[in-house]
Amino acid sequence: MLTTLLAFIFVLGILVFFHEAGHFLTAKAVGVKVKVFSLGFPPKIIGRTWGDTEYVIGALPLGGYVKMAGDNPLEATGEPHEFMSRSKWERLAILFAGPAMNLILAVLILTALFMVGIEEPAGLDDPPVVRFVAEDSPASRAGVLAGDEILTIDGDPIESWSRAIDRFIINANETLALQLRRDGELVDLPVTVEARGEDEIGYVGLFPAVQPRVGRLFEDFPAEHAGILEGDVITKVDGKPIFHITELIQSIEERQGAPVLLSVLRQDQTLSFELAPQRDGERWLIGIEFPPPTVIVQYPNPLDAFGAALERTDRFTRMTLTVLGRLVTGRASVRNLSGPVGIAEASGETARRGLVPLFMLMAYLSLNLGILNLLPIPLLDGGHMAIIAVEGLAGRDLSLNVKERILQVGFVMLLLLMVTVIYVDLSKIDAIGKYLPW
What we know:
The chain is of the alpha+beta class. Helix content is 44%, strand content 24%. The chain has helices spanning 2-29, 88-116, 138-142, 161-169, 222-226, 245-255, 302-328, 340-353, 355-373, 381-394, 400-427, 430-433; strands at 34-50, 53-68, 118-121, 132-133, 149-153, 156-157, 175-182, 185-192, 194-196, 201-203, 206-207, 216-217, 233-237, 240-241, 260-266, 269-275, 278-280, 283-285, 288-289, 294-297.
């Protein structure tokens, strides 16, 4: 619990600091007086004044704010150092600087992580050639076969497994048009994506070529007795190539205890082992634990790492905007949302796994925060920017009454959104969710 709390405060504190620092520094640069720079919301824990600004740490670590002179039209006096006295371009720059700092922070973190090395699922950069189709999956029911190459999804070219998986993940309950290359011919198949898990992630049952690597051997089981070692890669079963752990499991179950011949790659050697599976309840086991196959993606050159960070930022931005669009149109479930409870849980979990996963989460959250704050929703930076843009196009300022009504609507929208995401977060906790009506 303490790890989760500390990780949550650390992650959110850095994201809020960079966001508010963007507003603060830009306001100072254009000559706007900043009265308060606060990390966290009231009540105030500690505060100290330097120059014209009071720097505050609030008790509620769910955000922060920069209070500028004259940022409230009702309080503006027309002094040149006030926010409302600056030009529309200067006010737009101040508002845009917060989200921009979050986007920049995401790219910087990702650049550093790519230089250090990121552990990712194996096969994501491979061409999207199907090596395994799960039984009774959407893909198998649609007629996709092992060996098919995915060329397009809904007409969009697919160059790698990462692009294909991104499309599957964010399109739960949607039917996608897949164009495949099969034995030199083009095949068009519709595949309806299933929603799985509490987050309703899209699943089709297609996998790249990732041969099972031995992670751990169980004592007194056939694999250990036969001489298989940790790190061995199982490439064939009875002479038939396998490309996924599920293929190995199916092959063993089909034999119902009959001996199997495993071909194993050990460094540069190809070895063979014959072993008889051991019955354990209703299953047949050989005593091997297979961890999820991963690779280390690393770019020691800063320019290469920066390029990879930009590519990853672009990829995640596209996914985020797609999910937001599906939420607005009602084609995605609100269970895809996460609020403070979900972020706290994710922060604690990644912190326990190490600094690299924690900073990876921070990069994605920072990017998400930047994108969301640019949306034209009243009370958010994007909402204020939209009002200024409308005023610029109209050639006159909106009345204070109209602005007040817009902000009231925005407050209600954000309040409803916050209640919804907290409810969704709580519903995902077993001890609480079972008592909730939804």
